């Protein structure tokens, strides 16, 4: 179970990407063969891109693979580098928390106002709900990174 949770984002992103690929391929073939596209595919792939962006960011955070400019931090002592890295992770968690906070208001607004998508007339909140969900996952991953770095710093200090 621990392994499944550890790799959840990876498999989820792969599934979303595969679905987007299949839908887009079908839409391109339909456009070429039947000279008609399916507008719902555009909405689904747009939603998929949003989900991939936020959950993919969580996957990158889990691996510590977010891009960063280390020009200045490389010049700092090792202890200061650790402090800066933890501060960066905590800022990332704070930003993710803001995504969750404002995402919840966005979804509430979509739900209360009964907003519908243009192509499929589905409730907008069904797409928007992924923002606070992904933001929560991203926030958790950043907090995990900060805790791991703090533990590593304590272990290094004790040696």
Tally of helical segments: 6
- DSSP summary, beta strand count: 0
How much is the radius of gyration in Å? 20 Å
Note the beta-strand portion: under 5%
Low-confidence segments = none
Largest sheet: none
Helix content range: over 70%
- H and E order: HHHHHH
- Measured between the Cα atoms of the first and last residue, the distance is 33 Å
Quick check: average pLDDT?
88
Structural class: mainly alpha
Characterize the overall form.
Answer: elongated
Question: Care to describe what's here?
Answer:
- With 159 residues, this protein is an all-alpha fold.
- It has helices at residues 2-6, 8-34, 39-63, 78-112, 125-128, 130-158.
- α2 runs antiparallel to α3, α3 (39-63) packs parallel to α6 and α4 runs antiparallel to α6 (130-158).
- The chain is elongated, with a radius of gyration of 20 Å.
- The two termini are 33 Å apart.
- The mean pLDDT is 88.
